[in-house]
Amino acid sequence: MEIVIRALCAFVFLWLITRAVGRSTLGELSAFELLLFVTMGDLIQGGVTQQDFSFTGAVLAVGTFALLTVAFSYANWRWRPVRPVVHGVPVVVVADGEPKIDAMRGERLSMDDLMAACRENGIERFSDIRLAVLETDGRISFFTHDPAKSGADQGAQIS
Questions:
Q1: Sign (positive/negative) of CA torsion 81, 139, 35, 56?
Q2: Which residues contact 157 (CB under 8 A, 6 or more apart)?
Q3: Which chain regions cross the lipid bilayer (predicted)?
């Protein structure tokens, strides 16, 4: 039972960390950030199972994480008021060609990252953008005055 409680606490802690880190970091990881997250995973594993290297301990820890992941997913699907807390909300970062500096600052989205996402979508000028939305998964959806270029691009992630 101790492993389940430790896994529950570690899950909540990791969820809080990923919410605090922000969506712009989750879109694409640098090599250092990837190593940092792998190291964090190793540290969490030690904190959850401690010296228990048994198969039962591993099943309890992984099972608790999986169950909590399903519970978060179900709550996100079932109760609309829970979604902003669990999953976050999309944020408008450009409207009518004007970057929303306060929104970008709140999401720690730099102008360079926004311009890179524009270039990846073939957008040359901010004035071409009707609306740009930073999605909860770190991607940016662009809606331009040209309907052929509008919508989310699967490759447009920010670092």
A1: positive
A2: 27, 28, 117, 138, 139
A3: 53-75
